[in-house]
Design a protein that fits this description.
Elements lengths: L9 E4 L7 H22 L3 H21 L4 E11 L10 H4 L9 E7 L5 H9 L3 H11 L3 E9 L2 E8 L6 E12 L4 E13 L2 E9 L7 H14 L15 E7 L9 H9 L4 H4 L3 H8 L1 H4 L28 E2 L2 E2 H4 L17 H25 L13 E7 L7 H7 L12 E10 L11 E9 L8 E6 L8 E7 L10 E6 L10 E4 L11 E6 L11 E7 L4 E5 L5
Parallel strand pairs: 2-3, 8-9
Antiparallel strand pairs: 1-13, 2-14, 3-5, 4-5, 6-7, 7-8, 9-12, 10-11, 13-14, 15-16, 16-19, 17-18, 17-20, 20-21
Length: 556
């Protein structure tokens, strides 16, 4: 249960769950200063003392400075169950585009995106309407879609400021179905992982089992998703191996025990804290150790489910019966309890075939449902179904061997490249009414020391680029990486939406892979150069890393 109804900034860091980064640095500094005083007492010469004082102070401050984050980035996250609705025309408020300072990263997780058979198949061939709205809106502000993943109604989108792209590497996505014993993707989780300036982060968007009585099943599904998802990255093969994990989505946890009247009375009077101790997720966190590793800000916003559409009024539907039974007594959850492990689809073709099969089944079930004309259910109790949590990877318990090694190290227990996560805002936006859920928004400050700040590839245009003549560009591999002859360099108009939104492209040198610091020149045929002038940028795309790892300066 949360201690108060205030909304303090919630901070966590990658070094320890019990001691702050600052206190550890101060402790280390005290040790160095104590050593300094001892040295001064032992010095017989003023010159020697002065030299020793200077040297030891430099060492002390350099050492403490190593462990203090030097850069701060803003992360804006959204989770929203859109209930098959089309997107609103304006998402400026949802993305808080006019808030200062501006965000560096946007991560948007949607659930129940329209996945009817025809719509789903068309979305496989082109971007869905929700992706289009976010891409169009954010591209105008200098954001580029880094990656996305879709599993039926689950959609996860990641955007970054253009200048961050070369430092977002090793992007991978995966998904897990949990609907109908693990064979149907109406429930489950989709995830994206990548390295952000060398720090491993993972985002997991989930839609878990519905209904009041399935809290244990929701925990079981989440645990199964954590266990089953894996990545082809040696040091972070699992979700929980990442330094920071963000878990969010329509987690479907309800408020237990309280009656509808008490719930609405508490909400209307602003006494939300009266409901916290019966929130199923908070209750489950008290029971499940692995859930206790995830942090969440206080629930100081109204429950985000269930609303009448296009209103701020909670569900006003009236109870109905069908053949003498309430709908809730005949409805069964179409989700797994503990599904057997399933192999993910290995090819797009197989994924398409399974999607077509699901589509045909949906048509048949839809026709059957319409034929029966099942009535709507009883009023739903308000609930905080839509949540955003995060987890800092705990320190690995030290072994005896580690203790022996650490005894000779002055910086024991400190991470040379720390990452501090501070939640600045956790709220909902009641102005959007296209769904029976309200979107939930969280903003974070990510304070870190960059593991690197040089792009893997330097690329630049040569001379004047014009459609009247062939153009030239240079690129140089500045640091060794797993390059490929399938890598390419794209010409992008400033304000491009994604890596695939290029005007033209050229393959990198095909005969052999380049050496580090070797300058390579490539010609671009004049027929491939756009006729319309404007501001453009060159981007080197790595096939193996699935990202742009080098950008030129803007040019005409």
């Amino acid at each position: 249960m949360y201690p108060s109804t205030e909304s303090p900034r919630v901070r966590s860091d990658s070094t320890s769950s019990s001691a702050s980064q600052g206190s550890r640095s101060k402790m280390l500094l005290r040790q160095r200063l104590s050593q300094l005083l001892t040295c001064i007492e032992d010095m017989s010469s003023d010159d020697e003392a002065s030299e020793e004082v200077s040297r030891t102070l430099d060492e002390a401050f350099q050492l403490c400075g190593r462990f203090i984050p030097t850069d701060a980035f803003r992360l804006h996250m959204v989770t929203w169950n859109v209930a098959t609705a089309e997107p609103p025309e304006d998402v400026t408020s949802l993305l808080q585009l006019d808030v200062q300072p501006p965000a560096d990263l946007y991560v948007i997780g949607l659930q129940e995106v329209n996945a009817t058979p025809v719509r789903f198949i068309s979305d496989l061939l082109a971007e869905d309407s929700w992706s289009h709205v976010f891409m169009d809106t954010l591209a105008a502000r200098g954001f580029v879609k880094v990656t996305s993943i879709r599993m039926q109604g689950l959609l996860l989108l990641v955007f970054a400021k253009q200048f961050h792209l070369p430092f977002i590497r090793n992007i991978q996505t995966t998904y897990t179905r949990t609907g109908i014993f693990g064979y149907w993707g109406n429930k489950g989780g989709v995830s994206v992982r990548f390295s952000f300036y060398g720090h491993m982060v993972c985002f997991l968007n989930c839609h878990l089992a519905a209904h009041m009585d399935y809290a244990l099943q929701r925990v079981d599904e989440f645990e199964y998703i954590l266990e089953s998802q894996d990545f082809d990255i040696s040091d972070t093969p699992r979700i929980l191996d990442h330094k920071v994990v963000f878990w969010f989505g329509d987690l479907n946890f309800r408020i237990a025990d309280h009656g509808l009247h008490f719930l609405r009375s508490s909400i209307n009077s602003g006494r939300l804290n009266l409901l916290w101790n019966k929130d199923q997720l908070i209750m489950m966190k008290n029971k499940e150790p692995f859930l206790q590793e995830f942090e969440e800000g206080p629930l100081n916003f109204k429950p985000t489910y269930k609303f009448d559409r296009n209103s701020e009024t909670y569900d006003t539907s009236t109870p109905k019966t069908w053949l003498g039974f309430k709908k809730s007594t005949v409805a069964l959850p179409l989700t797994m309890y503990r599904p057997r492990p399933l192999q993910r689809c290995s090819t797009t073709l197989f994924f398409l075939l399974t999607s077509l099969t699901w589509g045909l089944l949906s048509v048949w079930l839809g026709a059957w449902h319409r034929e029966l004309d099942l009535p709507s259910g009883k009023k739903r109790k308000p609930a905080w179904t839509d949540r955003i949590l995060w987890r800092i990877k705990p320190k690995t318990p030290a072994t005896e061997d580690d203790d022996e090694k650490a005894s000779t190290s002055a910086d024991d227990g400190l991470d040379e490249y720390p990452l501090l996560v501070t939640q600045d805002k956790y709220t909902s936006d009641m102005s959007y009414g296209v769904s029976d859920h309200k979107p939930v928004i969280a903003t974070f400050s990510l304070e870190l020391r960059k593991c690197f700040d040089t792009p893997l590839v330097h690329v630049s245009p040569l001379g004047v680029w014009s459609a009247d003549q062939d153009a030239l560009l240079n690129y140089t591999v500045q640091e060794d990486f797993m390059s490929s002859t399938w890598d390419w360099i794209g010409l992008y108009k400033v304000g491009f939406k994604s890596a695939s939104d290029y005007e033209t492209f050229v393959w990198v040198r095909e005969d052999e892979l380049p050496e580090t610091n070797e300058v390579i020149q490539i010609s671009v045929n004049k027929d491939e150069i756009p006729l319309l002038g404007g501001n453009y940028v060159l981007g080197y795309y790595s096939t193996n890393m699935q990202s742009i790892i080098g950008l030129s300066a803007n040019f005409q």
